[in-house]
Amino acid sequence: MKSCLSSFLACLSLIAITAAWPSAVLACTVTLDLPDVVFPLEKMNNGAVCTVAEVVNDYTTYQLIPSVQVPIQKPLYDFLLDHPALTSNAVRYYRFGGYVVKEVSATVFTGEDREGGEATVTLLYQDTTRRVYHLRGSQGGYIIPLIAGSGIVMLNYHTTMGTDGREGVETRVTVFSRLDNRFLANLVRLLRPILQRLINNKLTKGVKTVNRLTEFLAQEPEEVRRDADQFAIDAGQAQTFRALLLPSVKKGG
Hints:
- The longest helix has 28 residues.
- The protein has a single domain, classed as START domain (Alpha-D-Glucose-1,6-Bisphosphate, Chain A, domain 4, 2-Layer Sandwich), CATH 3.30.530.20.
- 38% of the residues are buried.
- It is built from 8 helices and 7 strands.
- The protein has a 7-stranded antiparallel sheet with strand order 1-7-6-5-4-3-2, sandwiched between helices.
- With 253 residues, the chain is α+β, with helices and mostly antiparallel strands.
- It is globular and about 55 Å long.
- Helix 1 runs antiparallel to helix 6 and helix 7 runs antiparallel to helix 8.
- Helix content is 42%, strand content 26%.
């Protein structure tokens, strides 16, 4: 999920132009001509579908991040997704990144990257292999003015077996962003071929950060179990986290 937050915030920081424009009222029907992107619209409530449509029907940037296999079991991966504050605390504790996440409710959390970016993230839909998030955020800095926009992130993931015979999770992340500024959005679209490499690098930075954390969990489960109280929100959460790490400990990391 921090990967989803970092990717969106990075996209918003590409160019600095500030004239705002009112959001268009869009029908609650997703019109997207991308065969590789399939949202579970028939399973989502009408409000969630409208939220997705508002972004993807008029998106500024789109990125399908190639599938990546993370070396932890699915129950542990689900736990990290369900507890974004713990996950961001662990990322900071082991110095893989500087993201700060606060849980507002079971489906809403806020986050900031300590580099001028902040967002509110809402879980629109989830099942055993998919999650769809909406992001509303901004990016500011010493040089660039404030840039605001929205995003939709879809995470697809499922259990798989690694080349070493161990169970892992294969993930695929799809990200859409829509900038509030019409002129800025049109400029980004115009320069998309030139900016594609830069966008890709920024989008994958968050994914790589989360992958580093999962690799560390798999390689040093005993150390992480000892440290759990340092980044868990409470004792009960730390206990559950340790239990989910136990299979890795038994396999020798």
